């Protein structure tokens, strides 16, 4: 309860069938994904990002180090964020990777507001796949779930009558920082079709039925997930002359345009196909029409 009184945000990932509140050593998990105090329901605080693009962490002996390192490597390789392992005696704000029950993380860098300077991130049994690890690390870097975005209703329909009454707050909208990155049904942060269903029926339907199979994927972060992370942490500011990127491209630490699937050119100026055509292929929802 002490954690709850601090009005911090706690995320509990991927336990779709959770029905009762769970007490952990780090706070109360009342929902399968997001737990927010009334104060934090307005959105993440202005200081939620890690200072100087530096993410400090420690790994406990019971945590799956190889899975953690794979998740960290993904975000390190695709952004300008520096990941630094520190000792448990460090006084720096840091994430402590643990193996408690379930997969969960605080949202953003809350450890700099805590006397202990430590925030836990749990990767318990069944939580060590790359998609899940990168999902939880993304939460600790400041990401909320995709379906919490303020523009959610343009892309999906929430079937409120099918949602367990106890968990309807999971589907609330928030004033998120989207940084001109389009909503992404293939985001690793998106809920799946049946999350928190009370009757076995869908709780989320995509407005384009062809794209229904994309939501809830936990393979790895999508292009737009990576684009948003780079923009949140202002990676382009590390470049003396960042190139202008079109059609949803972004600049990372290498100071070149990274182009969305379906585009090409040094500034992503050529549009060859729809963004989701590639996603449907990669996630095996449909066949790959251009493959040999």
UniProtKB/TrEMBL annotation:
Cofactor binding notes: Binds 1 zinc ion per subunit.
Pfam families, per the entry: Astacin
InterPro entries: Astacin-like_dom, EGF, MetalloPept_cat_dom_sf, Peptidase_M12A, Peptidase_Metallo
GO BP term, pick one: proteolysis
Alphabetic keyword roster: Disulfide bond, Hydrolase, Metal-binding, Metalloprotease, Protease, Signal, Zinc
Cofactor(s) demanded: Zn(2+)
Class of the enzyme per the UniProt entry, highest EC level: hydrolase
Active-site positions on this chain: 136
EC numbers on record: 3.4.24.-
SUPFAM superfamilies, alphabetized: Metalloproteases ('zincins'), catalytic domain
Chain positions recorded as Zn(2+) binding sites: 135, 139, 145
GO molecular-function terms, A-Z: metalloendopeptidase activity; zinc ion binding
Keyword Transcription regulation (UniProt): no
Intrachain disulfide bonds: 80-235
Annotated CDD domains: EGF_CA, ZnMc_astacin_like
Secretion signal span: 1-24
Residues annotated as domain Peptidase M12A: 39-236
Family matches, as SMART domains: ZnMc
Coiled-coil portions: none
Protein name: Metalloendopeptidase
Source organism of this protein record: Amphibalanus amphitrite
């Amino acid at each position: 309860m002490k954690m709850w009184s601090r009005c911090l945000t706690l995320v509990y990932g991927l336990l779709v069938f959770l029905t009762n509140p769970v007490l952990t050593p780090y706070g109360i998990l009342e929902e399968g994904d997001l737990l927010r105090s009334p104060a934090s329901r307005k959105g993440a605080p202005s200081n939620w990002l890690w200072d100087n693009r530096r993410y400090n962490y420690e790994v406990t002996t019971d945590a799956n180090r190889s899975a953690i390192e794979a998740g960290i490597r993904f975000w390190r390789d695709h952004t300008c964020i520096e990941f630094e392992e520190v000792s448990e005696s460090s006084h720096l704000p840091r994430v402590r990777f643990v193996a408690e029950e379930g997969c969960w993380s605080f949202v953003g860098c809350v450890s700099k507001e805590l006397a202990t300077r430590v925030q836990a991130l749990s990767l318990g049994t069944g939580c060590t796949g790359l998609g899940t690890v990168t999902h939880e690390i993304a939460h600790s870097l400041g990401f909320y779930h995709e379906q919490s975005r303020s523009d959610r209703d343009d892309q999906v329909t929430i079937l409120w009558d099918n949602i367990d009454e106890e968990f309807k707050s999971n589907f609330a909208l928030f004033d998120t920082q989207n940084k001109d990155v389009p909503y992404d049904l293939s985001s690793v942060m998106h809920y799946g079709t049946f999350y928190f269903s009370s009757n076995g029926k869908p709780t989320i339907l995509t407005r384009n039925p062809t794209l229904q199979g994309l939501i809830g994927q936990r393979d790895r972060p999508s292009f737009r997930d990576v684009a948003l992370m780079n923009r949140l942490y202002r990676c382009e500011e590390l470049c003396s002359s960042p190139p202008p990127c079109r059609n949803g491209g972004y600049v990372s630490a290498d100071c070149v345009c990274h182009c969305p699937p379906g585009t090409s050119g040094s500034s992503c100026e050529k549009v060859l196909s729809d963004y989701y055509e590639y996603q449907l292929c990669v996630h095996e929802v449909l066949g790959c029409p251009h493959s040999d």
